[in-house]
Amino acid sequence: MKRPILIIVSVVVAFVLIGTALMTLFGPYVGTTYNSVSNELPGYGGGAPESVVVQETINSAPVSMRDQAILAFQVLEPQKQERMVIQNADLAIVVADPQARMSEIAAMAVALGGHVVSSSLYTTYYGPNSVEAPEATLTIRVPQEKLDEALATIEKDAVKVNYENRTSEDITNVYVDLQSQLKAKQAAEKKLLEFIEKAEDTESALAVYTQLQIIQSEIEVLKGQIKYYDESVALSAVSIRLIAEETVQPVEVGGWKLEGAANDAIQDLIYFTQGFTRFLIRFVLYTLPALILVAIPLYLVFLGGRGLYRRLKKSKAATEVKPEEKK
User: Fold this and answer.
1) Residue 124 and residue 180 in one domain
2) For 140-163, what is each residue's pLDDT tens digit?
3) What is the model's pTM?
4) Which of 79, 188, 284, 290 has the most beta carbons within 10 angstroms of its beta carbon?
């Protein structure tokens, strides 16, 4: 009796594992996107290496111009550069009216010389009866020298500050490197333009023009990266989450206000219920149908294998019986 049960359990476990693996491979990917500042921007360091560009340009230019081509790619000594630091902040505050506070913060950002990057007003739910309440998020940019003033203004009339995080990133070395690359490529562009004007034949002019297009494309990329860093240093990004005051009030059950650990426990239970409900919906509408689709071919393979096994077993039994009949 135990053996069939073990076989059934093993088959079920194997089916679930195979189904999960197939769902992972072929199912939709659900992830979270985060905004961050990275030193490795698209196009950074792209294009052909300097040595390759030098060699190809020199080889394609007339012999009389080779010495001039080498001068175009000489290494430029980096100039002294003041520190370039990107400063950003994010915080969550509890306010009486998220919508009105969002408008006030947007106006404050413009008054300080900044602007609103994005804003969102939506509805959240709280309490045992899932009462609706507004909530908002917005991101603003303000001049870096006025970041402290902006944060103080944002927190001034807040009921509570849940958290405040400030980050700093020193990009001086990256910025100097980009400027050095830009100067070198601009010098190369100038020399290549001279080569085209002095080219003695069409083949040489075409070869230099090809290199000129590559250099000009790289120059535009470098200018874009430098402009991005200039703006990031000049204007600090501040991300604010505005939470309605009523959502943080103690939960009231039968006239009894739950505070402290009891209030947190009730809130956690509500969140768990919401999460479990979403899980059930996803399981019924996605996971279960996907497992059924995986189970159909696996079951057919199982039936085919079992039938083949029984035929082989029956044939073997018949073969063993025949010698006994001869005796």
Assistant:
1) yes
2) 999 999 999 999 999 988 888 999
3) 0.51
4) 188
